[in-house]
């Protein structure tokens, strides 16, 4: 076969061990574009992941004794379409909301979190959710595995910490008690790269909030300063949250100052900063509703 | 959900005075497309689908620089790649080195200098597209990069060296009408900017060139808008007589003006002749953006002087259209722009200056609306300012100034087309408004859509109007004509014409005409190619009028001959005879013979050239009867805006369009809705972004076309007042729908936000940041 | 385990038929192979990036862009193209509705849309207006402005519902 179609992670890893530069192919929504546009060297060695069942399932891991939350591990080849509805969407409403904004129905049927992480664009739609939920990325190679917190996984524009021979097998997210939501600014209503995006997730058990911003920096940004400030101003363990309009507005302004956007052909730095500030405020207001 | 309102009361067409029911497939019915079945089955052969035994693939090497001298081209590396059959550059062009629709100033391959990013430098033919790509990558061009001229004002001021021997100013034309010193108590002005829109037809450029065995001629299957104009240029560049270059229409996946200029025709033909094998060329989307002309970006200053009641006394304007590196149709686009500066309004005095510039920006040319889109955005912005200054509503100010049949343009030409401007405005205004945005509206109904950027409370609604006039057919003395052949053999009608079917449905209309005139149901269509005289371009909203006129005339001639034959056979006068249903009948007697029977054994064959009345050049003051005819349209836009984020949802477009006569109502609806989508694109999302001559967004990722989630509800009314000049009573309907919808949407955004927005496309920051 | 530097023969199942693909370049998309090697040019390419939907096919029950599928990786998939929707030379109800409602102009987007509409209605027999729009939001049409396309979908939904209650 010209393209390897393994059925297990072990098979994939064994091949990667021999050929660490092999091209990993999941939904193809980034890789095939690069090949079609000849921006990528002609592929010599391709490993298709579509038959590796382990990568296409998700599971709810019960909480361990003494741990706060149960977790969910989503296989790296689960298509975005599966995150939009059903139990996964109930557990992670922000992920479902983000998934719905990915490309088009055709793209969502093929695109995956593994792909988004592999490409590591700061505008990747699912990535702010992973960041806000402190996701852990599971990476394996023939010689072992490592679990990388998402904030350490993304290191620059389209740069991650994957080494040759490594495969992203999945992502583990904590199931938190509290509101979570996502918003993305785009100039049209489908198939649009985010001009600015944001995910807000509250953790009532810890009394904290996470705010991750997309498309306004070289990687997804966590607004740690605004998060800390808000936790000092309001009781984030309350349900429902009760935060006044003034604080909501200031939260947005503070979030905007943590953005590091650029001017490009899609938008301006000024607009992007403004937009994430607005998104942060609006998400927080929704969290209080 | 799209609602179609029932057509408002229509004036009975004098051309269809019969009280009999329309036969299926006749003029006035929703006749089926003859190419519809293959299209829905995926069997319709677009040029992109063509294939020939032993064919090679061709590909083009393009300049990466907007302005550079070519020091040398080294193709030796490309020749080493297995599968490469030939490589051509400028020195291999056997005939004319340049081509063009008006000026022959555009290079087949760059000669010594490249003048825009994407200008063709070389081409290769090879066994596989991937081999072509590798061969192109192996061609080494040594460029001396030059400072590009990118500011049209510099081109006008003459402060830069010419980037082309013909100079940096493509055309300047002034219009002086009436009293240039006239003024009025109300004076409003504004500067309006229109970004570079792209036609973005879906079927990328494609052609298959098949050389004759003796190499002295070829057949070129091509998706294009005007076969004969292509042939003329291709033959000239190949150094061949035109009759040796036979063009056949390959299925066209949309055009909207982008296929009027030569793109790959000469390249493909040259590669085929050089290799002696069929060569297929097609562009990917990125190359397509570089390979065709775009809509002219424009900057328009306007100043209106009016009475205290808001009646226009004088308009002043300065229009600058940036034509980019080569002339294309810029001179004509400019004339359209400036002669439409007043809009569909009475205007006794005018001072207008128009410039079409040459720069190292991407070449611009025809796109649906052809210069009037830009002018309309400006004059409609002005009309709203006028309304505000006069203290009246936007609708009222337009009604007060509305042109009527016979009123003159600022060129002095009386608009003797039927001009139901007031009716278009009133009927548009009367169309039902959409329901208010519900408190629990679905997120997809809000600005920002599934991006969930807005809650209901963040959304403000606005309403805006736009009205437009648009010339039909070609102008300035151009001898435009169309040819059609009608044959009636043994009861079977066959039509032949060279009119490009680009999706607009002319093939369907031609059959409808024949069915109506000749009383037959089945109408065969011969191949669309250059084996018959020219039908002119599928553009300028002209085919229904011109080629419809030619088909109509050819069918009538055949009918005359049929009647003569029947008259002779039955001892009647031909004048007594008529077609009723599918019969020839004696209108004063009892004879009734089916057409099939009446034409049995006859071989009737008529070819006709149809011409419109002559037009004139403009004189140095821009005065002259330079246009043939005009159509009118009004649009109302309802938008919901999130002012804090600057996101817009176009909720509903209402329109009343002056169509003369709806020859196929369903098809007219398609033109209206399709044109509106393109105008919406220009209003809020479509722009080729150019920086220092470089295109930043040559892909569908970043050149955004409206999707199904962006389409507004459309309600429309057809204003049917048949034009006595038009051969079928019908005006062209293709362009008007995309013209005044754009300023209507922007006016609605202004209404919702209070912001003085004066550029399109409107970007979020234009709405929400200072 | 094969190294993939030299393409061999691989097999694709399209519209229920098995096809051998040989001497193909590894990077060829499913769209390319369908059109240029398997004699199935019904799926169209307008962008090669998954941004237009003209190449929509159904692969293992999901509507995807064929330009984004590496053909050689789809060897065990069940692929349906526009050519496989109707029986022989016939038309499906969706195809007929597109014709009757004036939803076809240049036709370049039409095959992708026909496949997408079939897929939509198979999974959601009575979509709301917004659901239809969202389901078709990955199919660009430049000619029609979508109005007549929505009308065609509505027409099929209505007539299928009528048939089901008849």
Shape of chain C: globular
pLDDT < 50 stretches of chain B: 1-19
**So what's the CATH class of the largest domain in chain C?**
Alpha Beta
Kindly give the count of domains of chain B: 3
Helices of chain B, by number, come to: 17
One letter per element, helices H and strands E, the order of chain C comes to EEHEEEHHHH
Major β-sheet profile of chain C: 5 strands, mixed
Report, as a whole number of angstroms, the end-to-end distance of chain B: 36 Å
**Largest interface chains and counts:** B-C, 62 and 59 residues
The proportion of residues in beta strands of chain B is 25-35%
Average pLDDT confidence of chain C is 94
Compile the SSE list and pairings.
The complex is a heterotrimer of chains A (289), B (770) and C (166).
Chain A: E1 3-4, H1 9-18, E2 23-25, H2 31-36, E3 46-48, E4 58-61, E5 71-75, H3 86-91, H4 93-100, H5 105-108, H6 113-119, H7 127-132, E6 136-141, E7 144-149, H8 150-153, E8 154-156, E9 159-160, E10 167-174, E11 180-185, E12 196-203, E13 208-214, E14 221-222, H9 224-233, H10 245-258, H11 269-288
Parallel strand pairs in A: 1-3, 2-3
Antiparallel strand pairs in A: 4-5, 5-10, 6-7, 6-10, 8-9, 11-12, 12-13, 13-14
Helix pairs in contact in A: 9-10, 10-11
Chain B: H1 36-41, E1 56-62, E2 68-74, H2 76-79, E3 84-88, E4 98-99, E5 106-107, E6 113-114, E7 120-126, H3 129-138, E8 140-145, H4 152-157, E9 169-177, E10 186-194, E11 206-211, E12 218-222, H5 227-238, E13 245-249, H6 265-275, E14 279-282, H7 285-291, E15 298-306, E16 312-322, H8 330-339, E17 349-357, H9 372-390, H10 394-401, H11 421-430, E18 460-472, E19 481-489, E20 492-497, H12 506-518, E21 523-525, H13 543-570, E22 577-580, E23 583-586, E24 592-594, H14 595-598, E25 603-611, E26 629-642, E27 647-658, H15 665-684, E28 690-691, E29 694-695, E30 713-719, H16 741-753, E31 759-760, H17 764-768
Parallel strand pairs in B: 1-14, 10-31, 12-13, 16-17, 20-21, 27-30
Antiparallel strand pairs in B: 1-7, 2-6, 2-8, 3-7, 4-5, 9-17, 10-15, 11-12, 11-14, 15-16, 18-26, 19-20, 19-25, 22-23, 23-24, 26-27, 28-29
Helix pairs in contact in B: 5-6, 8-9, 9-10, 9-16, 12-13, 15-16
Chain C: E1 10-14, E2 17-21, H1 30-36, E3 56-59, E4 62-65, E5 78-80, H2 93-100, H3 110-123, H4 129-135, H5 147-165
Parallel strand pairs in C: 1-5
Antiparallel strand pairs in C: 1-2, 3-4, 3-5
